[in-house]
Design a protein that fits this description.
alpha/beta, Rossmann fold, Dihydrodipicolinate Reductase, domain 2, nine-stranded mixed sheet, six-stranded parallel sheet, globular
């Protein structure tokens, strides 16, 4: 890891502004009194994007120990705002404001935090806007749509000195933290290879069909920084993942981010020096899925280390013993780790330790939330208060994200390529054409 990169990974702290409250607590409601107690430590939150990841934030926001207040629920779809309000009404004794345009939340000086759970094309541009607006940001994976956005996001964090965490929540998994530390301490000797995998049985995807924009949907704001196009049915509701590259980053961005991050963490490597990919659409030939649904990617690193990605979105054959996870091979043993356990093996394949946890983090099922997500969000809150250190600083997150971008680029240009493992730049002119992307006029992200 370069010295510049290490400089990025310093502890970032920023105190929440104190609130001076006069008067007596006598006769106040429990909620009003609670707002005074610890008010100088309270963090005010706005969530932008109220889709399937919403469940990841209910517990950390609603639990008393977090000492936060949810001021805004923002989404471009009216029904999403209303559904989210109903969900939080079950756990909060106040009502956050429902807002179509998240920029109004950024403009509110009372907001300390933006949680960015929008579609992929909004992750970096929206987060940069929030950082420039003085907010700390929790941005879901993938933290960027392309390599240039990763650079801009890190530059914005440094310039404005805000706490920015990527939502790769396994970085806050206690059993994963423990076994990674053991790997670094030599429990399997020298780790040299990791296989990261994802297996699912996604079905047919509707073919795109031009249709009037859904009632309650702000289609222009949904598109935001992406080039403008006509609305097609159900694009806004998850299928944007598979309808080309305007909005999504394919299954690699959708899921590989997590396991590739664990693999890189275990091997203690940064940028690869080579990527090769075999990928194609293998299932439901005539459906609306427009990119690969099956990918085999190989990343080579200095020191003869290698990470492989085996992504099977629509074939449920259980190759490795679980829907998703990472296998780390070392000179003296191996480790299997996923969201619920780790298993340590010696060099002969004998189980040395089988550590199963009670983790309830979502795996391959749609939706989000669980104990890892809660721990990850709370880690973010506590870092803002200066009480903790980020488990996934954005300067670290973008390196794992780069592996996703490299694999997608190799698929799109139909060839592998070499990479500068210090800067992350690609030694291929066709690949470098995809370093950034085209934006709608006036929507280009800037720092």
């Amino acid at each position: 890891m370069s010295s510049d990169r290490r400089d990025f990974l310093r502890k970032v702290t920023a105190g929440a502004a104190g609130v001076v409250v006069g008067g007596s607590a006598m006769g106040m409601s429990a909620r009003s009194y609670g707002r005074i107690i610890g008010s100088n430590d309270r963090l005010n939150i706005a969530i932008m994007g109220l889709g399937r990841r919403l469940g990841a934030y209910v517990q950390p926001i609603s639990q008393k120990e977090s000492n936060v207040e949810l001021l805004y629920l923002c989404d471009v779809m009216k029904s999403q705002r209303e559904k989210a309000a109903g969900r939080f009404a079950k756990v909060l004794d106040y009502k956050p404001k429902l807002e179509n345009d998240f920029r109004n939340a950024i403009d509110d000086s009372n907001v300390d935090i933006i949680i960015n759970a929008t579609p992929d094309h909004w992750h970096a541009p929206g987060s940069i806007m929030a950082i420039k607006g003085g907010k700390h940001v929790y941005v879901e994976k993938p933290c960027s749509h392309n390599m240039n956005e990763s650079d801009l996001l890190v530059a914005a964090q440094k310039k404005y000195n805000k706490v920015v965490q990527m939502g790769n929540q396994q970085r806050s998994s206690h059993h994963t933290i423990n076994i990674i530390k053991e790997i670094h301490d030599g429990v399997i000797g020298t780790p040299y290879k990791a296989v990261a995998f994802y297996t699912n049985t996604r079905g047919e995807v509707p073919n795109q069909k031009k249709t009037p924009v859904r009632d309650g949907l702000d289609w222009d704001l949904f598109q935001g920084p992406a080039p403008r196009r006509e609305y097609t049915e159900e694009t806004w509701n998850y299928n944007w993942h598979w309808y080309g590259w305007d909005f999504g980053t394919a299954e690699a961005g959708n899921n590989a981010t997590h396991e590739l991050d664990v693999a890189r963490w275990a091997l203690q490597v940064d940028y690869p020096n080579r990527v090769d990919v075999e990928a194609a659409k293998r299932h439901f030939a005539n459906d609306g899925w427009e990119m690969y649904d099956t990918m085999d990617a190989t990343f080579k690193f200095a020191g003869d280390k290698v990470i492989k990605w085996d992504g099977k979105s629509r074939n449920g054959y259980d190759t490795y013993g679980g829907g998703r996870g990472t296998i780390i091979y070392g000179s003296e043993g191996s480790v299997f780790v996923d969201r619920g356990k780790y298993i340590l093996y010696d060099r002969n394949g004998k189980v040395i330790k089988d550590n199963k946890t009670n983790s309830n983090e979502a795996g391959t099922a749609l939706g989000g939330g669980g104990d890892m997500s809660t721990s990850h969000v709370v880690n973010f809150f506590n870092t803002i208060r200066g009480k903790d250190k980020l488990n996934s600083h954005i300067a670290e997150g973008v390196i794992s994200q780069a592996m996703v971008h490299y694999s997608n680029i190799a698929y799109r240009i139909d060839k592998g390529f070499d990479i500068d493992d210090v800067s992350g730049r690609m030694y291929d002119k066709d690949a470098m054409k995809l370093w950034g992307r085209e934006y709608a006029p006036g929507w280009e992200p800037t720092v």
